[in-house]
Amino acid sequence: MAGVDPEFPCTLVISIPLPTHKLASAALKALEVDPELSPLVRRTFSLVSLGDHNAASSNASSDGPASNGTASTEAVNGDVSTEEKTVLRIEYKATTNRMLRVSVNGFFESMAMVLGVMQYLDVDVLLAE
User: Fold this and answer.
1) How many angstroms separate the CA atoms of 105 and 9, rounded?
2) pTM for the model
3) Which of its termini does the chain have fewer beta carbons within 10 Å around, N or C?
4) For the sheet containing 10-17, what is the strand order?
5) Contacts within 8 Å (CB) and 24+ apart, 78-85
6) Are 100 and 63 in contact (CB under 8 A)?
7) Beta bridge mates, 15
8) Model confidence over 75-115: pLDDT tens digits?
């Protein structure tokens, strides 16, 4: 692959669709405050529209701002209105698959907490089964 960073060859893009832009933005703000603990892992956050997250995944490159624990809320497509950005997109880069796995596991623990709080505080937003 031409776009692979040789220092961080292991990559993963996670797209989490949420019901509204407000919830996606709240999740982003809640998750981005915690810096990535390891210097061997880098992650970026962004909000994209439902239609853009597939295009963004296939066009992902190492040219974006991928600094340790830094978040970016810029849209992939500048023509998309803010309210249409309901997909939380997280890009991970790591030196090894093990470091990637450890970091992503921690992220999903935090994401579960954020979704649990959203569900608890607003029962109409996320359906409880």
Assistant:
1) 19
2) 0.73
3) C
4) 10-17, 87-94, 41-48
5) 80/48, 80/49, 80/52, 82/21, 83/21, 84/21, 84/49, 84/50, 85/21, 85/24, 85/25, 85/47, 85/48, 85/49
6) no
7) 89
8) 344 566 888 999 999 999 999 999 999 999 999 999 999 99
